[in-house]
Write a structure and sequence with these properties.
By secondary structure, the chain is of the alpha/beta class. Helix content is 42%, strand content 13%. A hairpin with a 2-residue loop joins strand 5 and strand 6. Helix 1 packs across helix 18 and helix 18 packs antiparallel against helix 19. This is L-arabinose-binding protein. It comes from Streptohalobacillus salinus.
């Protein structure tokens, strides 16, 4: 357990922003927001999160809950902690059975820690099952075990391709004619030949921004459904070879400045037309607004290229599952409020209007509230949710285990360095070596 927690601290802290799409509160003082403290006899519910932005959603939900449920008012005390501190303290509280909140956010990479042994979370089946037929169910499966759903997802995290239409037009490329990765490579050759930009970037710190979604498209992962390690399978080898080749053989891409597309170095590069496209989840839209404002009106969002005609054109990346702890003394109220905040139609609409996330319930994607003008439509144009409706059934679940952090460590520390930077190993050699290293950890 100590080894696991150390690895999670080292690697998942570094990718908190990637995984949840929110603000990183690491190093900041704890924040506390209270709603309903002016209501007599309101029942207090405590909530822990590691993303201050999420409290905008919960506070709004608490205000509306109290308006609509005057016979069951709540006093919501929402506390924001740094990523590492919150998850460590929550795990300790869950194991001891005391000292924890009623409700908590758990980052997707940490969630498996809470699904081992005597699970300290309450099943949410009575609230989840009625909405599954109208939702992207794979985003619920990553917070489930043995038929029980323990977490309410925060977004789909649908991975898409962002195209700089100014560059693509200059290159003479019709982005709507890019259907497969082969098409993508051919379009990239036109971009390189006719513009001063490259087509794309390949990250060395971006397991979640290129390698993982690209193998997920093909039904692969680092682990199979049973938790068996498949990191070095042929699909993964071929995908890593593709990433190598677009840089060194096809010469349509270059290594991502800063190693990942969430670095200040990359923001400046992409804002200055360094590359024509970017692969990232839909929640990455906020990065454009905050860090690449010069690109407003120049970025179009499209599905990922498929690996073959008719193949999957998206993948769900990152996430936060919100849970109710068994130790709560207000189980039904806590579950009902959580369902109201994140599983109801209004709650899912608010995931978009308040946070700018793609809500898990696709039946909300065509509602008037979702279609109302906002800053995201102003920046990227309309049609975002129409595109998501096309790919909603093409998102596979991810297979997290307690050793996912080991895979990410090996990929960033050794695989990408040896295959993509120094070219000292083939993809097959690097992934076999990484799989062997992870296997040793699994056997300890």
């Amino acid at each position: 357990m100590k080894r696991l927690m150390l690895l999670l601290v080292l690697f998942f802290t570094a990718i908190t922003l990637i995984a949840c799409g929110g603000d990183d509160t690491s190093g900041e003082a704890d924040q506390v927001e209270t709603v309903g403290d002016d209501i007599e006899n309101a029942t207090e519910l405590t909530l822990w999160t590691f993303v201050g932005q999420h409290n905008d959603l919960y506070s709004d939900a608490a205000l509306k809950w109290n308006e609509e449920n005057p016979d069951r008012p709540i006093k919501l005390v929402a506390e924001t902690y740094p990523f590492e501190q919150m998850h460590n303290n929550l795990l300790l509280a869950a194991q001891s059975g005391e000292g924890g909140p009623d409700i908590a956010d758990i980052e997707v990479g940490q969630f498996n820690n809470f699904l081992r042994g005597d699970i300290p979370l309450l099943p949410l089946n009575e609230h989840v099952e009625p909405v599954l037929e109208n939702a992207v169910s794979s985003r619920f499966e990553i917070y489930a075990k043995d038929g029980n759903y323990y977490g309410a997802p925060t977004h789909v995290g649908a991975t898409v391709m962002y195209y700089n239409t100014e560059i693509m037009d200059e290159a003479g490329v019709d982005i709507d004619a890019i259907h497969t990765w082969d098409d993508f490579v051919e379009a990239g050759k036109q971009v390189v030949e006719n513009t001063d930009s490259v087509m794309w970037n390949v990250g060395t710190e971006d397991w979640l921004m290129d390698m993982w979604p690209m193998i997920s498209q093909q039904g692969s992962d680092a682990f199979d459904d049973n938790g068996e390690l498949i990191l070095d399978n042929q699909t993964n080898v071929d995908t890593l070879q593709f990433l190598h080749d677009v840089v060194y053989v096809d010469e349509i891409a270059e290594i991502t400045p800063g190693g990942m597309n969430q670095s200040e170095e990359f923001y400046g590069y992409f804002n200055d037309n360094g590359a024509a496209s970017l692969l990232a989840p839909l929640w990455y839209m906020g990065r454009f607004l905050d860090s690449m404002p010069d690109l407003e009106g120049k970025i179009a969002i499209r599905p990922l290229p498929a690996w073959e005609e008719g193949g999957n054109r998206s993948a769900g990346m990152g996430g936060t599952g919100t849970v109710v702890l068994k130790q709560t003394e207000e189980a039904e109220l806590a579950k009902d409020f959580l369902a109201y905040a994140k599983l109801s139609e209004e709650g899912n609409i608010n995931l978009w209007t308040v946070l700018g996330f793609d809500p898990p319930r696709w039946d909300t994607w065509e509602t008037e509230a979702i279609q109302e003008p906002n800053k995201y439509y102003d920046f990227f144009g309309e049609g975002i949710f129409e595109m998501l409706l096309e790919v909603r059934d093409e998102i596979n679940p991810l297979n997290f285990t307690e050793y996912t952090s080991d895979v990410i460590a090996e990929y960033h520390t050794n695989v990408t360095q040896n295959v993509l930077r120094t070219q000292s190993q083939t993809p097959e050699e690097a992934l076999e070596e990484a799989a062997a290293a992870v296997s040793i950890e699994m056997d300890n």
